[in-house]
Amino acid sequence: MQHRLPTLDIAVLAVYTVGTVAFGCCFLRRSRASEAFMKAGGALPAWAVCLSIFGTYVSSISFLALPGKAFSGNWNPFVFSLSLPLAAWAGARFFVPFFRRCGDISAYAHLERRFGAWARSYAVVCYMLTQMARMGSIMYLLALPLNHLLGWDARLTILATGLLVTLYTLMGGIEGVIYTDSIQSVILIAGALICVVCIPLGMPEGPGQVFRIAAAHGKFSLGSFGPSLASATFWVVLLYGLFMNLQNFGIDQNYVQRYIATGSERGAKRSVWMSALLYIPVSAFFFFIGTALFAYAAARPEAFPPELRAEIAEGAGDNVFPYYIVHILPPGVSGLLIAAIFAAAMSTISTSVNCCATLTLCDLYRRYLRPRAGERESMAVLRASTVLWGFAGVGFALWMIKIKSVLDAWWQLSGIFSGGMLGLFLLGCLRSRAGSRAAAGGVAAGVALIGWMTFTPRAAWCPAALRSPFHPFLIPVVGTLTILLAGFLLSARRS
Fold first, then answer.
1. Is the pLDDT of residue 416 over 80?
2. Fewer CB in 10 Å around end: N or C, the chain?
3. Which neighbouring-strand residues pair with 41?
4. Is a pLDDT exceeding 60 seen at residue 404?
């Protein structure tokens, strides 16, 4: 399956990569102060923040894993996107005004005022673990097409990606990240649209054949509407999407930092709505790409090599789209699509790196080590932690190389590492009488249930009757609700 990339494609990819890094580094002068590095003076336009939030959503997880899931299954994961309007409404109505009123760069500083230092640190650790999993998944998916198809070593590709993203994040700060994200978002949308058009046009009997083959195999199904909580039904995925998207818009540093960096509250609200409404059709494009590739493989099996046909027969779809990009699309277009995958990956990784560095300074260094750290010292911590988190993401990506389904792995890891943070935040907002002990008891109960749902389903040491019967997508749902309910009950007992 290895293939020599045409010179035109290499040129397109090289120009894009060098241009992105150079553009991100152009903001060096404007990010030399810690406040500018973390929130860009709070004056960024809503359109740039919108595209940056959108780019955070559409990582290479979306660009490669969503088509892979649609190829091997159906549109069931698309239900995740359908929860976005409600989450965006809550974000614009409640979360944006709350965080802009607080004025904290950290999304978790208010938890210390509400429940104590332990709550802030708990949320920070959960967030950082989630971002490590996210960066690792994205860098691995970026290396996938280059490794399997071009023979480029996956480990070296992951390392090079981590270095490049860390470089322009280190130089440009949040302003460089947001403006670079904006350009990358446009490129990845263009890349998706090209595939939406090209794949159906390549069908032997015309574009309509895609829909006939896909419909015959139930590829447009949104999943079962049954009441089961043990499988990824429509309702299970919808619940997962609702809770994870509420967490994204409500307490995720990636989003909160952008609320603060936007020039006005109205602009921040507009960016939330625009990014959410933009993601829904674009995610549908990615699922359609996977569905169209399924029809293409059924109509033109000879277009794929025997080893890939064997993977297809086993239901694996992660390698089909990368193969199509490199081997079937015309020269130049392939380079643009690979550049779009780079765009999707670099956008999200840079965001995660910058936000983790921000929390390292605000929630760890200034909170526990040097509360009165000066400007030079603060910038040194920001730059050092930027490098540290860049390489942490690289390490996690190397660990994930043997994962079979990256989307499933990412969704499960994000649900586990999030640790029910949303429940703790909602408890503080909805239960004024809940104090530190009630919150700690709620978190303990939530973490216990998260552990039970995570480790018992396949554990040989656990009796079958005691194993969790719930689908892993319900982990963040149960964790959030347990923290909230237990906190309510414990605070009622003390009142």
1. no
2. C
3. none
4. no
Alpha carbons 69 and 406: distance in angstroms, whole number: 10
Q: In this predicted structure, what is the pLDDT of residue 65?
A: 77
DSSP string, 79-92: HHHHTHHHHHHHII
Q: Across residues 142-153, what is the average pLDDT?
A: 69
Q: Please give the mean pLDDT across all residues of the chain.
A: 85
- In tens, the pLDDT along 479-493 reads 999 999 999 999 886
User: 264: helix, coil or strand?
Assistant: coil
By CB atoms closer than 10 A (0-12, 13-18, 19+), residue 465 is exposed
The CA distances from residue 207 to 71, 88, 92, 212, in Å, are 17, 34, 40, 9
Residues in a beta bridge with 44: 262
Token pair recorded at residue 407 = 């989307």
CB 254 within 8 A of CB 355: yes
In angstroms, the CA 495 to CA 90 distance is 30
pLDDT band at 411 (very low <50, low <70, confident <90, very high): low
CB atoms within 10 A of CB 438: 23
What is the model's pTM? Answer: 0.86
- Helix (H) and strand (E) counts for the chain? 23, 0
What is the token pair recorded at 279?
């993601």
Query: Under a CB-based contact definition with an 8 Å cutoff, are residues 203 and 296 in contact?
Result: yes
Pairs from 401-409 (Cβ < 8 Å, separation ≥ 24): 401/140, 401/143, 401/154, 401/155, 403/140, 404/316, 405/65, 405/68, 405/69, 405/318, 406/61, 406/64, 406/65, 406/137, 406/140, 406/141, 406/318, 407/61, 407/65, 407/66, 407/68, 407/69, 407/77, 409/137
- Averaged over 381-408, what is the pLDDT? 81
Q: What is the pLDDT of residue 408?
A: 62
Surface-to-core class of residue 85, CB atoms within 10 Å of its CB (0-12 exposed, 13-18 middle, 19+ buried): middle
Q: Hey, what are 174's tokens?
A: 């949040």
Residue 20 CA to residue 180 CA, distance in Å, equals 7
Cα separations in angstroms, 178 against 168, 181, 267, 375: 11, 5, 15, 23
Q: Helices in 73-153 by DSSP H: which ranges? A: 79-82, 84-90, 96-102, 109-115, 117-150
pLDDT number for residue 400: 75
Which residue, chain included where needed, has tokens 């920070």? 124
Closest CA to 2 of 153, 120, 136, 176: 153
Q: What percent of the chain has pLDDT over 90?
A: 38
Side chain identity, residue 431: R
The phi, psi pair for 262, rounded to 5°, reads -75, 150
